[in-house]
Amino acid sequence: MEPHIQEPKTDYRPLGVSGLGGWLILVQIGLFLTVILLAVQLIQFSLPTMTTETWELLTSEQSDYYHPLWGPVIIFETVYNALFLVFGIYTIIAFYSKKSIFPRLMIMFYSVSLAVGIIDYLLLLQIPMARELEDGSSIRDIAKSVITCAIWIPYFIKSERVHNTFVR
Predict the structure, then answer these.
(1) pTM for this structure?
(2) Strand, coil or helix: what is 70?
(3) What residue spans of the chain are helical by DSSP H?
(4) Which of 17, 42, 79, 91 lies 20 to 30 Å (CA to CA) from residue 113?
């Protein structure tokens, strides 16, 4: 009878830091806040605007507030908010499932948010009434989005924690 040789157990856990802690806590907070704010934006502003006299006021050629871009801008913002809400929820699910696609989703999340913010701002500048109402908050939002991209996109590309956590 041959003696049974037991092979050493291999530890497949990633080396270094991993898990949903560290700076990823801020990512979690940001994702949840974004989803909540998008839902509020849709419920309080976007959907009511499309179904009320506000829509008629902005899109009817007989109105003093009419501009041909109001309709497309309102639809663009509503569709974006709805799609981004769904995308945000999917991203949260990928986060807690530790899916390997999560870092790419976050890079898309930040990049698309910045691109849409710029597009929306440029569209609104074409509408005189919207341009008059611009108080600088849109530029501040774009600047925040640029800073967010500058910080978080490299983090998701280079972070050891991200690399070790999102492996499924």
Answers:
(1) 0.86
(2) helix
(3) 24-41, 47-51, 53-59, 70-96, 102-125, 128-133, 137-158, 160-165
(4) 17
